[in-house]
Amino acid sequence: MSQLLNYKLEGEGHTIVLIHGLFGSMDNLGLLARDLKHDYQVLSLDLRNHGQSFHSEQHTYELMAQDVKNVIEHLGLTDCILVGHSMGGKVAMKLCDLAPNLIKQLIVLDMAPVPYQVSRHDNVFSGLKSVLEQKPKHRKTAMEILAQHIDLEGVRLFLGKSLYSGEEHLMWRFNVESLWNNYSDITGWQDIDKTDIPTMFIKGGESDYLTSEHQPQVQRQFRHAKAHVIGNTGHWLHAEKPSEVIRAIRKFIT
């Protein structure tokens, strides 16, 4: 039996599955979960190599989608609504290809079904590796090490949520080595077969992860795709404008 992802199930009703992005955990979409669980059953997960889930040397979309499918089948769920942010958006799109019979609707937060040629996380990996090498005992020290590599405080605070106390020093919950070794798979993408699953792409107005240039690739893979732009926000739209994201999700799924 394959290992099950760490998950949390809350609320009652139709099931919404929340899938976080790179360097995240289920807590990243917690604002969405806290709202949606009043009217839906919400399944939150930690993807492999993240949060409290198992670590693996392999980190492909095929495997991550299979991991999520295993949890859905373990819980006996059907007609799921998938909501995935960034890397989690690609996992959700892959799952529509892998198990369309389990999925009712798909919502992708600021991610396109394309391979990205740009490496956006070199400074992040430098900071994470420095923390591993220097083995700080205190959170303040770890955050100071990160600051030598990462200018944006918001990014440092986000990463800091995944620090925990090991036996002698602070450690990362995510598997830095595996994510680094598999980074080309994470930024990459292989087209899925064209799907009939109703899909909405929600874009951060100031983000360049999803642009009009990606429209041909979206239309090639998603027969029923809609787009919704949330203005004055970047890639972290669910953290910056949670109420607007929730409103868009609720409107689409009702």
TrEMBL record:
Keywords: Hydrolase. Residues 15-242 form the AB hydrolase-1 domain. GO terms for molecular function: hydrolase activity. This is Putative esterase/lipase YbfF. It comes from Vibrio caribbeanicus ATCC BAA-2122. The lineage of its organism: Bacteria, Pseudomonadati, Pseudomonadota, Gammaproteobacteria, Vibrionales.
